[in-house]
Amino acid sequence: MHTVAVLSLKGGVGKTTVALGIASAALRRGVRALVGDLDPQGNATASLDPPMTESTLADVLETPRLAVINEALAPSAWSDSLDVLVGSEELELLNEPGPESRRMDNLARALDELRAAREDDPYELAILDCPPSLGRLTRSALMAADTALLVTEPTMYAVAGAERALEAIETVREEQNPRLRPAGVLVNKLRARSYEHQYRIAELRESFGRLVMPTAIPDRLAIQQAQGACTPIHEWKSPGAQEIALTFNMVLAKILRSSRAGRHRLDHTESGELETAEQAPDYPGSGPGQNETTSQFPAIRQYAEPETG
């Protein structure tokens, strides 16, 4: 089971939209998936519309035993092939700031329990929808994840926010979860005709190079319509929804490729070779010389610099 944490540093950037879009793409591809709703707002749970459960993910983080996990686990209304670890407002009580907590590794333990118990019907992908902060819930997700996908908007605050999030990913990787890797920086709510948006994407690409995903999620009303109807974006019938669905197919493909390549990359990293992200098609600002400013961010330079030799 490959586990991806979907995170952001502020609300309103569409982090849950991305988590649900990946889940929708997984369903279309026939990938057995699980969504863990760590956001106290519970928007992913509301959109996936599972039946009522006796426990929630807040209980699982307190007591990561299989009996409690099963009480918090339910099939989504989207499909029996997509399950939900149900979120609740009580999660906010577990999100106080600070890196130290006895609960920090409980999510990783719970997913290990679930993995061992479902050997006959395993999940291929677990999607963790994190709260919009770097509190304990998000750090718990990073400790449990194989990859982390950062969601941002094309705004003037995007570079600073991405820098802080990627530094947090690197800190967790170095201190607690050596298998963790950034899946990339995904730009959401893009208006392709906006000069400001194109400028900010170029700024992101200049700072973070190949970590910025080669595809962005366009700003379309179809996203809100599908979520309001508790329907996967791949099943919403409109031209805008089809465009978004294709984008999420590409995001999922990249995540799954990182899953298959993870062990290979880790082996090379341990032997001292430079790990790099995959080559991206052109965005505004991409091209030779655009990765030079990654020297400002040594924590992420190993992921963003181009291959040499």
Automatic annotation (TrEMBL):
TM annotation in the entry: none
Pfam families: AAA_31
SUPFAM superfamilies: P-loop containing nucleoside triphosphate hydrolases (SSF52540)
Superkingdom of the organism of origin: Bacteria
Region (Disordered): 263-309
InterPro entries attached to this UniProt entry: AAA_dom, DNA_Partitioning_ATPase, P-loop_NTPase
Protein name: Cellulose biosynthesis protein BcsQ
Organism of provenance: Prauserella marina
